[in-house]
Amino acid sequence: MATPLVAGWAAIIKGQNPSFTNEEINTSVITTSEPDVIISPPQDQTSANRLLQIELCKLYQNLYNQCNEMIQIFQRQTQCPTVNLISII
């Protein structure tokens, strides 16, 4: 299950930072992870703890929602009326 989570997290980072290189995305995934959240992970595998960024995910979701709201408001406020050019001439 870790692979889809890492891929999803990397996609979020890339979406927010389109100019990031693969190395920058990798560094960002590692440095923004939360260590030691899951108790007693299997010793023979890499811990999933590093990917649990609950608060950061909430922040991204809130920002995404706010941006969508602003876009919708802007679109409503900037709708131009249609004009019949023949009637103007």
Q: Features of this protein?
A:
single chain; 60% helix; elongated
Structural write-up:
The protein has 89 residues and is mostly helical. It has a domain of 55 residues. It has four helices and no strands. The N and C termini lie far apart (66 Å).
Q: Would you kindly provide a brief summary of this structure?
A:
This protein is mainly α.
Task: Calculate the terminal CA-CA distance, rounded to whole Å.
Answer: 66 Å
List segments where confidence is low: pLDDT < 50 over at least 5 consecutive residues: none
Helicity range: 55-70%
Q: Calculate the mean pLDDT score and round it.
A: 75
Query: Strand pairing plus helix content: what structural class?
Result: mainly alpha
Task: Give the percentage of residues in beta strands.
Answer: under 5%
Quaternary structure state of the chains depicted: single chain
Largest sheet: none
Report the total helices: 4
Question: For the CA atoms, what is the radius of gyration?
Answer: 22 Å
InterPro entries: Peptidase_S8/S53_dom (IPR000209), Peptidase_S8/S53_dom_sf (IPR036852)
GO biological process, one term: proteolysis
Protein name: Peptidase S8/S53 domain-containing protein
GO molecular function: serine-type endopeptidase activity
Task: Please specify the SSE layout and strand pairing.
Elements: H1 2-16, H2 22-31, H3 54-77, H4 85-88
Helix pairs in contact: 1-2
Pfam family, one: Peptidase_S8
Protein name: Peptidase S8/S53 domain-containing protein
InterPro entries: Peptidase_S8/S53_dom, Peptidase_S8/S53_dom_sf
